[in-house]
Amino acid sequence: MSSTKERVGCVVLPGDVLTCGSELPEGKRDKLICGPGLRRDVDDVVVCKSGILRHKEPNLYWVDSQQTRYVPAKGEGVIGIVTAKSGDVFKVDIGGSELATLSYLAFEGATKRNRPNVQVGDLVYSQLIIANKDMEPELVCIDSCGRANGMGVFGAGGLLFKVSLGLVRKLLLPQSEVIQDLDSMFPFEMVVGMNGRIWVKSRSTQQTLIVANLLESCEHMTTAQRRDVLRRLSQNCL
Amino acid sequence: MVCLPLDAGAHKFRHMADRRLREFGCEQNLLSRPDGSASFVQGDTTVVVGIYGPAEVKVSKESYDRATLEVILKPKVGLPGVAERSREQFIRETCEAALLTALHPRTSIVLILQVIHDDGSLLSCCLNSACMAAMDAGLNMRCLFCGVTCAIDLDGNIILDPTAKQEKESRAVLTFAIDSVERQVMMSSTKGAFTTAEFHQSIAICQKAAESIFQFYRDSVGRRYSKS
C-alpha cells in the first residue's frame, strides 16, 4: 500500500493496490491517468497485469508486461495479412481475437473506379482507427490527409516473424539502442507492427536471417550480452 | 523461448515436520506456441499449462458480455474421465473468478493442463500452474490465486501438501484456492469425513501456507523482468 511514485520501476502483480488516497479530501487527492494494466476500483488504483510499473510525467502510469497475444488498440500501426476479399472490404488478420476489416477505399488514390491492387496473402502495414472490445477492429492505409504516409501493401522477398509485444515496444522507442546497434552492422529494411510482427529484408537471404535471429534473441539478453554477440558476429560472418 | 533448468527458478524452504509444503518450483514461458505457459513442480507432482487467448471463439460458445473460459485437463496416460472433468470444473470456476473476462467479450480463453506426474496434491498444483500461466500470458486479473491441499490422517493430524501415499492413508483430503488480496477461500474441494473444527483449522493452515506461494510468485516474476 505504498505510494505510487515509490513503486515506479518495481514489479507489480495483479491485485496490488497502488494509491490509498481515499483518506484525503476530494480536492487534495493526486490525479493520475491509468494506462494498460491498471484499473480503478472505487477510490484505489488496482493492478491487473504482472509486470513493471512505469511512469511518464506528469501523471501517466502503466504496467509494462511481456505478452505475445495482441489486443487491438486504437491508433496503433500493425502488420496485417490479407486473408479474404469480400465485397468492398478486405479481411485482415492482425493477430487479435477476430479479423479486422480494411475498406478498399482506405488506400491512397483509391476510388470506386480505381481499386487498389491487393491480393489474398499480401502484407499490409496499416493503422487501427476502430479498436474496442465491443466492435470489429477497422484498419486504414491512409492518414487523415489522405496520404499513404508509409502505409500500404509491402513485403516482396522479405521475412515475417513474430516476437513478443514487449520487444516490439522496445524496438519502437525513439533512438532504440537495439536498432542503432543493428544498424551499424549492415543496411536492412524493417517494418515493425505493434501486434508483434516484424518484417525484415536485407541484401541477401543470409543477412536477412541474421537480423531476424538477432532480433528474436534480443529479448532474453542484457545490453552488454547483446553488444558482445553483435561484436563477435561482425568479426566472424561479415 | 529460453528454457532454464528447473532448479534455476526453484524456491526452497523448510520448517516444521508435516506443516510445510514440499519443495516447489516453476518455469514460465517454456512453450513457444501458446500465448502463455508455465510448468509447476510440487514435490514430485508436475503439471504443464498452456494458455491461448483472448482468441477467436466458436459461435456456439460465444458469450456477448465476457470471454468464454475453457479448461482441458489431460491425464498422464489414457483418456480423461470423471475425475478430470470434475477438476476441470474446479479450475475453471476459480479462474473465472480471478480473470477479468468482461474486458474481452466474444473471445475465448483456452487453458490446457497436462499432468506430467501425479504424486498427490494434483488439484493444487494445477491451480498454481494455471495462475502462473495466466500471468505469463498477460491476462487481466482481479487477483492472483493459489491452491493448497491438506490431508487429515486417522489420528486427526493435518498434513500439508500430502503425497499420493499420504492421501491414500488419510481420512480426508481438502483443497482450497486462496486469493492474493484478501487471503480468503475462493474454492474448496473436499473428500472424506471431517469435523467443522478440523475444516476451519485446515483453512487456517492453508492460508498460512499460501503466503509462501504468493511470495514465490512475486520473486519469480521479479526474476523474469530483471533483464529488461
TrEMBL record, chain A:
A GO CC term assigned to this protein in UniProt: nucleolus
Keyword field: Cytoplasm, Exosome, Nucleus, RNA-binding, rRNA processing
CDD domains registered for this protein in UniProt: KH-I_Rrp40, S1_Rrp40
Every Exosome complex component RRP40 N-terminal domain range: 28-66
InterPro entries from the UniProt entry: Exosome_RNA_bind1/RRP40/RRP4 (IPR026699), KH_dom_type_1 (IPR004088), KH_dom_type_1_sf (IPR036612), NA-bd_OB-fold (IPR012340), RRP40_KH-I (IPR049469), RRP40_N (IPR048541), Rrp40_S1 (IPR037319)
GO biological process: CUT catabolic process; exonucleolytic trimming to generate mature 3'-end of 5.8S rRNA from tricistronic rRNA transcript (SSU-rRNA, 5.8S rRNA, LSU-rRNA); nuclear polyadenylation-dependent rRNA catabolic process; poly(A)-dependent snoRNA 3'-end processing; regulation of gene expression; TRAMP-dependent tRNA surveillance pathway; U4 snRNA 3'-end processing
GO function terms (MF aspect): RNA binding
Localization annotation: Cytoplasm; Nucleus, Nucleolus
Superkingdom of origin organism: Eukaryota
Entry-linked Pfam families: KH_6 (PF15985), RRP40_N_mamm (PF21261), RRP40_S1 (PF21262)
Main location, first listed in the record: cytoplasm
Domain K Homology: from-to ranges: 158-206
PANTHER family recorded: EXOSOME COMPLEX COMPONENT RRP40, PNAS-3 RELATED
Similarity comment text for this entry: Belongs to the RRP40 family.
Name this protein carries in UniProt: Exosome complex component RRP40
Taxonomic source organism: Erpetoichthys calabaricus
Classification of source organism: Eukaryota, Metazoa, Chordata, Craniata, Vertebrata
Gene it is expressed from: EXOSC3
Automatic annotation (TrEMBL), chain B:
Gene Ontology terms describing biological process: nuclear mRNA surveillance; poly(A)-dependent snoRNA 3'-end processing; rRNA catabolic process; rRNA processing; U4 snRNA 3'-end processing
Domain of life, per lineage: Eukaryota
Domain Exoribonuclease phosphorolytic residues, every copy: 21-139, 144-202
Keyword Cytoplasm listed: yes
SUPFAM superfamilies assigned: Ribonuclease PH domain 2-like, Ribosomal protein S5 domain 2-like
Subunit field text: Homodimer. Component of the RNA exosome core complex (Exo-9), composed of EXOSC1, EXOSC2, EXOSC3, EXOSC4, EXOSC5, EXOSC6, EXOSC7, EXOSC8 and EXOSC9; within the complex interacts with EXOSC3, EXOSC8, and EXOSC9. The catalytically inactive RNA exosome core complex (Exo-9) associates with the catalytic subunit EXOSC10/RRP6. Exo-9 may associate with DIS3 to form the nucleolar exosome complex, or DIS3L to form the cytoplasmic exosome complex.
Record's keyword terms, sorted: Cytoplasm, DNA-binding, Exosome, Nucleus, Phosphoprotein, rRNA processing
MF-aspect GO terms: DNA binding; RNA binding
Subcellular location: Cytoplasm; Nucleus, Nucleolus
Name of the protein: Exosome complex component RRP46
Pfam families reported in the protein's UniProt record: RNase_PH (PF01138), RNase_PH_C (PF03725)
Main subcellular localisation: cytoplasm
InterPro entries attached to this UniProt entry: ExoRNase_PH_dom1 (IPR001247), ExoRNase_PH_dom2 (IPR015847), ExoRNase_PH_dom2_sf (IPR036345), PNPase/RNase_PH_dom_sf (IPR027408), Ribosomal_Su5_D2-typ_SF (IPR020568), RNase_PH (IPR050080)
GO CC annotation terms, alphabetical: cytoplasmic exosome (RNase complex); nuclear exosome (RNase complex); nucleolus
Statement: the UniProt record of this protein carries the keyword DNA-binding: yes
Similarity remark: Belongs to the RNase PH family.
